[in-house]
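Limitations
The structure tokens in this dataset are predictions for the assembled complex, not deposited experimental models. Users should treat interface geometry with appropriate caution, especially where small molecules or nucleic acid strands are included. An illustrative entry is reproduced here so readers can see what is and is not provided.
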Amino acid sequence: MNINEYNGVWVYAEQRDGELQKIGLELLGKAREIADGINEELTAVLLGNNMDDTAKELLAYGADKVIYVEDEKLTHFTTDAFTEAICSLVESEKPGMMLVGATYLGRDLGPRIAARIGTGLTADCTALATEEETGHLMMTRPAFGGNLMATIMCTEHRPQMATVRPGVFDMIAKDESRVDASKIDKRTTTFSDTVDRIKVIEVVKELKDTVDLTEAEFIVSGGRGVGSAENFKQLEELAHALGGTVSGSRATIDNGWLAHDLQVGQTGKTVRPLVYVACGISGAIQHLAGMQDSDYIIAINKDADAPIHGVADLSLVGDLNKLVPEFTAQLRAMNK
Amino acid sequence: MFPIDQYKKMGEIGLLGLPFGTEYEGAGGDYLSYILAVEEISKVDASVGISYSVQTSLNMSAISTYGSEDQKKKYLPDLCTGRKIGSFGLTEPGAGTDAAGVRTVAVKDGDNYILNGQKCFITNSPIADTFVIFAMTDRSKGTKGLSAFIVEKAFPGISIGKIEDKMGIRSAQVGEIIMEDCVVPAENLMGKEGKGFGIAMKTLDGGRIGVAAQALGIAEGAMDHTIAYMKERKQFGRAIHKFQYLQFRMADMKAKIEQARYLVYKAAMDKNNGKPYAESAALAKMVASDCAMEVTTNCVQMHGGYGFIKDYPVERMMRDSKITQIYEGTNEVMRMVISGNMFR
Amino acid sequence: MNIVVCVKQVPDTNEVKIDPVKGTLIRDGVPSIINPDDKNAIEEALRLKDKHGANVTVITMGPPQAEVALKEAIAMGADDAILISDRAFAGSDTLATSRTLAGAITKLDFDIVMAGRQAIDGDTAQVGPGIAESLNLPQVTYVENVEFDGKNLKIRKALEDGYEVLEVQTPCLLTAIDSLNEPRYMQMKNIFTAYDKEVIMWNASDIDVNPEHLGLKGSPTKVKKTWTKETKGSGEIVELPAKEAAAVAISKLKEKHYI
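Predicted assembly:
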């Protein structure tokens, strides 16, 4: 493989039943920065059917060029058809890098493409950069349950591939003036028989409401300092704004403010969410045992000496009755 | 609350039938493997540990050792797999270790025996389907008049009396068995009439290894919890396991546990190898249960105030330990067994 | 029917701690377990075996001590176990690993190859699809239900916001997630068999793979550097009016990409 033949940054623009997924735009945002840094072209790759408008949208979000492959067989995602279509593009166009969303579909498609081409793929990256001297992609990801971070490179194979989780990068502002129909390279493709190995019988959308504390990514937890069952409403609103759920220390459960299965601690559940907001929890050892492995801990407590601050990444010292509603309000304003 | 679902699962995966042959749906293991399983279970829950030990080393061992082939085929598969739960009824208000005092009587009536009497402190009785019951077929002969029967819960005339409210092993189900003209088919007599005393005493020897393993498990479980706690708990600016006095106390506990372990495994090996094991079982039970009591008491101490509250498991383990010094022969009786052998 | 299940022995990452002084991972005393998703794969294979009859072979690539994981799978009910182990495999990334495993599986008869979605030490989810590619099999990842009518498989594949039902012909490769089933515990009698059962040992020369594709040499990705995340000490303390304090919290969450 002569890696010098390969250049340009590709972003796979994931669509689900004709609907462009936000992850593709987030990837374009980061890829724009990378492409500018190494002076290469940024191409969005879209596979679908009747999606000409979406192709234009990708230009507005930062792509220099869109390769849009249209086929009925690309309406709904299947591993075989999508892998074939992309691999034949890679073979003819020789991109230097390719970014794919680490979604359920992207994590199915990405490794299949990488294996077919025989190149490297780094999964679930949380940071991407290029090496100054060489322009090689430096892909950083967590391992060992988030205990270890690793920077991975793929210096001798192309394209350098990475998947990235939704929400890691920001999309750039939409700019309609970038849309230029001549930048859309619309193509057709041919498929082998293997794409019929799997038949899609049914696609069902359903919202999964997870009340399982141990699975929650955001937890807002209250302690004795919350004061009453009534006051827990503020915490629920904050949890809602974060897209998470509430829990409590033993005191809140013993006082009947919360249901039993929402207790965190030695006698309750052990949780490790991304973000744990501890409100009015002093941080007794039996509570800490259940939450200290959370990724990021915010403690809200008026007592600056409370032990909870010892495990918190961020301590907000003050009245939770003021802080929590303010936190909620600002989150809501931001989500709008 | 006895975790009946988990207990049934123990049957499904083959724990209850561990030392019995695969022809009876057992796992085909040996007695030591079974003893290791009781130890492991008791590290977490001594109540399940004793239910397991009573079913396997008393009820099922008795049937497996003294039952006829027909009896084994009929009863062991259901017991091995947990489809049925087993219990062992010897103790009565007037007869504990002193089996000659059994007042339950069995009177032959055609093809049946009619049993009348009352058993107490019977582990598993409220949840059991299959009982091994000891009754006098001839009271004039004393212990030589004692016989053993397999009694099903479905037989007419058997019922469960009071369920005990206990200091420890609180989820284990322990209660009375009441037999009022209970009709037991003659084919359910184990061995011959008058062989009951030998069956009871030999079976209890094996059961004591189970209790010893339970005690060992409790001690180890408490020590594990305490080690974890000592690494977490800070006083005077450092984790309390950094204090040498506490370290040394833990070392002493470890030594006690290892002493008990070798005696427990030795007794199980003796039984495996077909050697006499009454004495090694008594030694194991005495040392392991005393060890459990001492270690758990110290573990509560190591936890300080937290050791005394129910958020931490060591206070339960301390309460659970006490009974291991008492049941299946008190430790005083163990000393009788041991010294009896010395001065024979 | 023949089912091959790919498993990995992993350190229980829940038990991996960080040395607060050196900032390195403490792996001493961390128990090794069968990767959780792989256990779901084993369970599903055993369920197919219970229902339709099948020979279940578990296979792993790893150091000699990974034999323990295979013995556990036998104790769960697997029929055969293969350990592929060779110094030549050292440094394998996901591509080299999948090619190595495929090179072994291709020597076996199989109708279904199963794997866990991903391993808890690497979390990549790439080896399953990589094996499928090397063996030219159709793949379904994130499998949460399997129905088999004796000929075709009807698979429910999980998605972020629902699921799809797929009809798949055999041979194929499936990757299991934890909602697929509840893995059974080892059976006591199988534990005793596991002691007697020989694990088949294969090295690089026993499998059908291009030597150029093995180990470090066959791995396009290279680890440039690793580091542990900063350990938790007392974090930042903010004592500000509510408005500003909340703004600080939000900016921190954004900065760390939590929101």
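Some entries come with short summary sentences. For this one: Chain A has a mean pLDDT of 92.
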